[in-house]
Give the backbone structure.
Amino acid sequence: MTSHVSRADVVTATPARYAKQLVSHLGRRVEWTTDGVTSTATWGTAVGQVVVGEGVLTLVASGPDADEVAHVEDVLARHLERFGQRNELTVTWVRT
C-alpha cells in the first residue's frame, strides 16, 4: 500500500532532454524501466517516476515509508536542479 505520494511539476522548454539526462545519470545506481513518457525506478520500498509532458517534467515519489519517499525526492530534485542550473530549474514537492 502506498501511503506517501509527492509530486513536482517542473516547467521547462526541454522536458524530454532533462528526463533522458536524469534517467541516464541515475541509471548507474538504480534500474529504470521506461514505458512511453514515464520512466520508473525503485529505491527500497519507494518508487520514483520521471514523466515527460508538454513543457513540463513531472517527478513523482511514492511509497509506504516517509523516509524512503523523502530520499527519492532528494535524489531526483538534487540531480535535476544541478542539471538545470543554467535554466534555473527548481523542484518543489507537493505531498498529495
User: Anything to note?
Assistant: The first strand starts at residue 4 and ends at 11. Strands lie at 4-11, 32-35, 38-43, 46-52, 56-63, 94-95.
